[in-house]
Every structure is written in structure tokens, then in C-alpha cells.
């Protein structure tokens, strides 16, 4: 996980005015464990890191005037407002909402007292790259950095959370980069490898079509057919002049994307992909399929858009820096990410009334800046149904499976991309499946046939117990409060050496997700071209497909409207309430199925969100609002 926090509740005042009331978590711990870094628990301590080794960490600064920033964001998405779609440049954002150059100079001088040097300052004045030896960081932040080994990975990490020097507390929100454990997982799922279920065969489009019509081998052409995108293509709307961005934690081979587009019959520019290696870039590993499909999907739905890939190491620092790099560059018009983790992983210890949320707020600041600059941001809602921790903390190890949601999709300034199963029929060894209506993706229908081990695979969705309900969901029928009697339990003491239970907030009016949904079930899923995995592959899915699809769709909408449309959640909920549903409206309603807990009902629900888009209608509705 690699996520640990060191911030008192008092420090939340920086962003609390913009976020609203934060919940408290009740800790019924068997022992009062000392403050420690959760990523080092249950890991082998290999001893002190090389004290003379030079490393670079990121010092994230507080935004200024957060309430004014949220108000500005709201006005940019309020038709009739003088600020409607009047988005800021990076320099304008820095001047209004970031620490001044004088303040940054004072921070540099304070860090220099410990021998640390600020080697670069992001254009938005929020992300400082600070260099020094491990010993100097130990001294500056009152910690001890060791090497650790867990799950085959060797990483460095502080043995206890660092303490921000008193002189910096006013301006410094978080220090990341001292811990190099993995930070997130890709949200990609393949068809289940269980006895009696056949492996799907790749089918490519035929006869000049870009679609296959074959579940498990769907392409962006099939997505265009299903979600009413073709009328935009017929008007010459192809994403020309727009730029989509991908944030990812694994590198990839750009040629794979070109092969995919050519293989399904799309004609694209041969120099449309730009790679930006953040903090040295990510590795070529199993996560590379995630990056590959993200680019194939976003760039395929918007075939004339440019694509910028922000590729970072899978660490807290890499994940955060990638977003700050993207928003500071302000080059992309829309941005998607298909990596995440359960949001309650960010609250691993609730000791002595403290809540460790500084890194969450660091992400939130980047998303708020994106919104103020008109960059639409999408995140996959998760692939473990309503029980997001089940993939990280399986019950077999003594963990409970409380209702949880995935982050960064749960952030109130991100559009959460949920998943569906589209209609299909199939005969398996244990019986037949006949899905007649599009519904929230849940492999409960396969488990009902008798296949085992599929709980809780399906679309993420539910209620945040960290982020309060945002203004755009206020008063929306179907939006839920958090469920009662939910607790995160480690009955075997795997994490901290002794059993513990943390009771999650009940009836908390938290941010609901997803916001919108599209096909994500691998059984009705997609083709991927991934050379490292063998070339053309079928039966891929996950909400990781939906986030880049919405990214590409936004490029089309931006071109159709004639400029950036920005953070779309407020617009989506307004259109749902004003226009209702139907083939001639922006959205279709899903009213059957569930994500293992939350059920689809008329209107909004935490299983499918608002529903699925009719993209051409949506584009016209947004254009008409201006």
C-alpha cells in the first residue's frame, strides 16, 4: 500500500472549508499501537538505508483560499454565471490560490538549514522537488528511514511518520517520496479463470467496420455504436485540436496502441502520443497492459486527438507528482486514471484521535486545480463491487469486508467511472446466462450458476466515509448515506501484530459514486493489443476501460462545444434532474441489477450512478447550456 499519514485534525482546517465536515472513525483497537508506518508492518526490516544516499522527495504546499477556489469551480459550471467556462491558466491559478514566491523562498531557506535543497518548483507553486541525503531527511523530519522487503519488493520507508518542522506547518501539507512501497493497483479484470469457463478468442472487425459485435472482443467502434457517439463522428467531430491525458504507474510500448488502432480500421496520426516520464517514469511490468488499454481506448474514441501519457513510478510520490505535473503543464483538456486503492487504506491508524489524510488532501488540491483550469478528470470506480478492500485484504487472512469505495474515484472533484454488463447470452458448463437489460456489472450472475470465488468482482460504488457529500449531489434523489455496522477488522493481527477493529462512520452523508457508467464486464468486454502479453487479447474489462472512454468522449464534447467543458459532475447531475432519461435525452437509466450490495433503481443509485450516456445528446445538451 505504501500510504501513511501524519497530520492532526486541526491541520484539516486548510481544506475543510471547501470539503465540508469530515467524519470521525471510532477505533476499538485491542492495543494502543504506537504511531508507525503501515507499509512497513508485516515487512522484513533489512536495516538502515544508506544514510549518504541522495534522494528526492516532494513537498506539497497548501492551496490558499480553498473556499474561494471551490466557489470559483462552482461558478465555472453554473450557466449564467460571469465565470461560466472562464477557466484559469496555470499562472493565474498560482497567483490566486498558491503560496507566493516569497513564501516559497522562506520554505527553501528553512529546508536549507537541514542541508536540503529545493531543485524545482512546479508552475502552480504547489509541488516542490527537494533533494538531500537520507540522513538529512531523517534529521529534518525526525524519522529513521530503513530498507524493507515485502511481497518480493524491496523498498525504503520511514519507521515512523515524519514530523513536519514547526516553522513549515503553516505552508506544508505533505512530504512524499521517503516511502517507495507500491501505492496503487490497476483496475483491470480478465474473464474468470475458473474450471468450466472457456477462454475467449480474439475477434477482429471485418468488412470495413471498426466494431466486432462480439462480447469479449468489443472495440471502441462497439462503444460508439452502443453509447450514441456515431452522430458526432458523422458531423466531423473526432477530437481534432484536443488533447487527452493519461496518468499511469506503469510504462508501455506506444507502438501497441498504433497497432490496435490500425488493426480495428482507424486512421490516426503516427506522432500523436507524447510520453512524459514523471520522477523517472514507471516500469515495464504487468501493469503495462493498463497503460496500453487506457491509451487505446481514449485515443480510439477520439481518433484525431493528441495523447499525453504521464508515466510515473508506482509510489505515493509518483502518483501525486503525476497529477501535479499534468495540471501544471495544463496541456491536456481531459485526464483519466485507472489506478486506485480503497479509500480507507488512507486511514490505517486512528490513534489518539488523529486522522492521517494529508496525502488525500494533496490529491484533492491537484483535482481542484484541474477543475479551475477546465481539465475534466475521470477515475475508475473499482472492480471489487461495493467491498473494495476485499482485493487488498482477503477474508482468508482474517480481514472483514466492509462496504468501501475506491480512491481517487471517491474524490469530490473527480468524475467516478462505473461499470455495467451489457445484454448478452452465453452457455457455460454450469448453465446459461441471458442478460436482457444493461445493468451494473456484478459477477453475481456467474456465482448464481455455481462458479465459486467470484465475490465481490464487479463495479465499484457506494458512499465515501471520508469525503462529505458535494454540492452537486445535494438533494439528489437516490443519493445514500453510509451504511450502519461497517467495521474494518484484522482478526489475526496481520497488519499491526495484534487484532484490531475500526468502526466506520454510520449514516455519514458522504460523496456517492459512481457518477456515470459504461460497459466494463469482461464477459461483455474488450479487445486489447498488448505485445508483451501475446498480441491480440480478448475478455478484458474493468472500470479501467470506462475512465479512458469518458476521457476520449470528453475530447469529442470539447471539440463540439468549442472549448473545454471542465469538471462535468455538476453538469451531469443538473442534466439528469432537468431532462430525465430516454433515447432522446443525455442519459439512460439502469433499473435492474446490483454491485453485490447497492441496487440499481430509477434515478441515481450507488450501483450505476446517473446511468449511461447518450453521448451525442449529452454534447448537444452541454452546448445548449452555454
Q: What value does the Rg take, in angstroms? A: 23 Å
CATH architecture of the largest domain: 3-Layer(aba) Sandwich
Please give the alpha-carbon distance between the first and last residues: 43 Å
Number of beta strands: 30
Any idea what the CATH superfamily of the largest domain is called?
Peptidase S8/S53 domain
Q: What is the approximate shape?
A: globular
The biggest beta sheet reads: 8 strands, mixed
- Count up the helices: 15
CATH fold descriptor of the largest domain: Rossmann fold
Total individual domains: 2
Low-pLDDT residue spans:
1-14, 24-36, 348-356
CATH class of the largest domain: Alpha Beta
Portion in strands: 15-25%
Mean pLDDT: 90
Structural class: alpha+beta
Helix content: 10-25%
List the SSEs and their pairings.
Elements: H1 16-19, E1 26-29, E2 44-48, E3 54-61, H2 66-76, H3 90-97, H4 101-112, E4 117-121, E5 127-133, H5 134-141, E6 145-150, E7 153-158, E8 172-176, E9 185-186, E10 189-190, H6 220-226, H7 230-234, E11 243-248, H8 254-263, E12 273-277, H9 288-301, E13 306-311, H10 316-329, E14 334-337, E15 339-342, H11 358-372, E16 376-380, E17 406-407, E18 415-421, E19 424-428, E20 431-435, E21 439-440, H12 444-447, E22 462-468, E23 487-490, E24 500-503, E25 510-513, E26 516-519, E27 526-530, E28 535-541, H13 543-561, H14 569-579, E29 587-588, E30 612-613, H15 615-625
Parallel strand pairs: 11-13, 11-14, 12-13, 14-16, 16-18, 18-26
Antiparallel strand pairs: 1-24, 2-6, 3-5, 3-8, 4-5, 6-7, 9-15, 10-28, 15-17, 18-21, 19-20, 22-25, 23-24, 27-28, 29-30
Helix pairs in contact: 2-11, 8-9, 9-13, 10-11, 13-15
